[in-house]
Every structure is written in structure tokens, then in C-alpha cells.
Amino acid sequence: MNDSSFKALLEDLPVFWWEVDEPWQVRERGGGAFADTGTAQRFLDRMRQELADPGHPPQDGRWQARFDGRTFDVSWPLDGSSAPSRTRGLAVEVDTHPGAPRRYAAFADLVDLAPAAAFIRDRHGRYLWANHAYAHLYGTVPEDVVGKFIEDVDAPAEAAQFRALDQEILTRGTPVRHTLDYRRPDGSAGQAVGHRFPVRENAHTCVAGIYVDITDHLRATVQRQEAEDSLQALRDHSGLPCALLSANGRVVQASSAAADLFRLSLPDLVGRRAHTLLAPEPGLDRLHRRWNGLIARRTRRVETYAVLIDAQGRQRRAQLHLTTVGQTTARARHVWAVVTHHSLAHEAHPSLTAAQVRILSLLAEGSSNGDIATSLNLSRQTVDYHLSRLRDLLGAATRPALVARAYVLGILAPRAWPPRSATAAHPLSTA
User: Fold this and answer.
1) Looking at residue 351, what DSSP letter applies?
2) In this structure, what DSSP letter does residue 262 have?
């Protein structure tokens, strides 16, 4: 190896060499131990002081020197100078030897096993260090990354991008936050976000980076957004009145059909307490108990009836399907309420008695007044009175009109035969 080749080799090593003439005039110097000429000159001044001390250097021309917290093995003089009147010296940093204690070892071990991908590259694009998370991005281990160049592990287009980023860091000398696109070992696209910043490694300015792989997070975010968009489209275009209710019964989301049902604008419906949308009915206590069972996760879905009241005070009986959302907590946080059937809106009227509802169901079945009286063990006059009262309450002039009104007002179940109450607890129940 000639002299110039040897000097080039030392440029990347933690070594400092110098060549001076007899009056200590520096002719040449180099090596990779110091990144700037000011530090190198201070080291040379220190060496001149060492040589001026009668006790230094030892007779064999070798000793150790401490400088800026670093330890160097110094050799002086060295044979083979390029001119008889010149003398060479060589200083090798001891702390870089494999057996030297590691600085910040606990931190290095932490980063090495951290889930964030981290690396250090020199100015030539060669990997000096990489942790397990970084190597995992390429489907390998750190030992197979260290020592390689960017082009050895990345595709040409990505390698060019990474080199440009490295150069930006070396030029600016300040950290930069990046979002990077890269190719995973299986060929799929990946994204990572993090910082790239300058560091001092073996007396050289290098580029370090620490990144978090956000590919799966972005994919989950996109899938969630697509699911929410699909749910919103289904909610808005199904025509069904539906609302998402919080555990304390507040409307969180609602469809336009639900807003129309209550004769409210959508912004006015969202945020409203659900109990303000229910008419005061004897069945409310039962509805509250079933709601509490949903929130406590004693059941996941409930089918029930309720009397809804709109902004104009008009009522309608509605069939409700209540379903809890999610199963990750001990108590349900949200419930979807869907109205699958509802009656015509009508003015409020007194609640019907069980006997009156039973009379309406028998009337709808085709029974005469005498048949109804026999079935219910009532007198004919009592049945006539109830029918007259029902015509007044429901605004029906005839028996057929009374049956029709019982159906459109949601008193009788529209899809049941024999006719029965819409609020019957069991499908075969007649009351």
C-alpha cells in the first residue's frame, strides 16, 4: 500500500496523524479522529506540551494522552517519513477498541429492543448500526444490515430518496421529521413516520433516524373510515329512522328519516336526550328496565314498543330494535335504536285499558257484539258502551273505521293473526 492509499484508509478511522518539521511546523495532518481543523490543532498543541515535558514521551516514544474526554494511544516518532527533516506522529483513540466500555450501554440496549426502527449511517450511506425493529422492516436481522450500503437493502428509487434525505441532514445539521414510503419484504407498500438527525459517531458527523411503522395503523384507519362511510350511506338511504344513543340516553348520531319522524332538523335532534322524545306512557318503566339491561350487558338486543312524540306534540306508536355497540367494556357505551314500524301521527288520547284493546282485537277478527260479550264474560250493554267510547277516542264513526284506526294508530299489531295488541309481550298473546 502506498502512502496516499494509507492516508485515505485513515480518513474513516478514529485515528489522527501528523507530520511536522524540526521547529514544529505542521506540514501535513489527517485521519478521522477529529471532524474540524480547530479540534485537530488543539490536539497538536497538547502533543507539543507533552513533548516539552521532560518526563514525556517515554524513551520508546509511546504513551497515552487524554483529550476532550477521549483517550488516545500516541506513537512518536514514527519511521518512514517522506523527508529526512520531517517527523510523523500517530494517535489512535482507545475508546473505539472492541474491548472498551460502552457509553450509555443501558440506553443503547433499550433502543436496540425498542419497537421503533432506528439506524445510524455514515456520510457514504453505509450502515454503522441498526436495531432489531429496523432490520425487521427488511425481513432480516441487524447483523445482515450493518456494513451494507443503502443500495444493498433498498430499491434504486427508494435508495436515491434516502440518500437525498441523508444529505439534507448533513447539510442542514438539524433534525427533520419525515414520513417515508418504502417497500416491505412481501412487496407491499409501507409507511413510516419519524425523525432523521445528525449524530457524532467515531468523530464523524453521521445520520441517525428513528421511525415508527404506521402502515397497519393507516390501513386500519382507512378501513374504519370506509366502514363508517358505508354505515352512514346505509343509515341515510335505508329510509329507516335510526339513532345512536349514548349510555345516558343522549342522541349521538341520527338518520335524516329519524329527524323527519320527530319533525326536527338533524342538528336539533343530535344531542337531545332520548326521554324528551317519548310520550309519558305506563310502559315507560318496562322500557327503562330493558334499557338498563342493555347497558349492563345482561342482553345485547331488545325488541320493544314505545310511544314517540314529535315537535308538534303528536304521538305515534313505534316498534323499536335496540342493539348495543361493541363488547370491549363491562358496560355498553352506545346503543343503536332503529324504528322498524310506526303508526300514523295522532293527537294524544287517554291510554286504552286492557279490556278495550281486547275488544278491538275481537272486533278486528270479525266477532259480533254478542260474540265479544260472550268471549269476555261481559254484558252486551257493557260491550256497546266500550265500542261507543272507543269510537269517540279514536275518531271513528263505524265499526270498520274503528278497526282501521286501531291498526294505523299502532294499537293492533299489523302483521299478526289472530289480531292482537301491538304491545303484547309474546307473539301468541292476545293482550
Assistant:
1) P
2) T
The neighbour count for residue 145, using CB atoms within 10 Å, is 19
Cell numbers for 241: 329512522
Q: What angle do CA 198, 204, 207 make, to 5 degrees?
A: 30
d(CA 365, CA 370): 14
> Which pairs count as long-range contacts for 183-186, CB under 8 Å and 24+ apart, including other chains?
183/154, 183/155, 183/158, 184/137, 184/139, 184/215, 185/138, 185/139
Query: What is the DSSP track for 310-328?
Result: -TTS-EEEEEEEEEE--SS
Give tens-digit pLDDT for 73-124.
888 765 544 444 567 888 887 765 444 444 445 666 778 888 889 999 998 9
Higher pLDDT, 190 or 335: 335
pTM above 0.90, yes or no: no
> What cell does 211 get?
421511525
Cα-Cα-Cα-Cα dihedral sign, residues 337, 342, 344, 347 = negative
Torsion-angle region of residue 61: left (phi > 0), alpha (psi -120 to 50) or beta? left
The two beta strands, 117-121 and 204-213, are antiparallel
Nearest to 245 by CA among 312, 303, 332, 313: 332
Q: Is residue 29 within 8 Å of 47, Cβ to Cβ? A: no
Say if residues 328 and 351 touch (Cβ distance below 8 Å). no
What is the structure's pLDDT at 78? 55
- Note the pLDDT of residue 429: 41
C-alpha cell at 295: 347497558
Distance from C-alpha of 403 to C-alpha of 396, rounded to nearest angstrom: 9
Would you place residue 5 in the very low, low, confident or very high pLDDT band (cuts 50, 70, 90)? low
Beta-bridge partners for 17:
30, 90
The pLDDT score that the predictor gives to residue 269 is 92
Beta bridge partners of 117: 211
Is the backbone peptide bond immediately before 58 cis, with ω within 30 degrees of 0?
A: no
Tell me the per-residue pLDDT of 212-254, one tens digit each, with 9 for 90 and over. Answer: 888 888 888 888 887 777 777 777 777 889 999 999 999 998 9
**Are 19 and 26 in contact, with CB atoms under 8 Å apart?**
yes
pLDDT > 70 fraction of the chain, expressed in percent and rounded: 87
Concatenating the DSSP letter of every residue in 185-242 gives TTS-EEEEEEEEEEEEETTEEEEEEEEEE-HHHHHHHHHHHHHHHHHHHHHHHS---E
169 φ, ψ (degrees, to nearest 5): -65, -45
Whole-number average pLDDT of the chain: 81
Q: Judge contact between 322 and 301, C-beta under 8 A.
A: yes
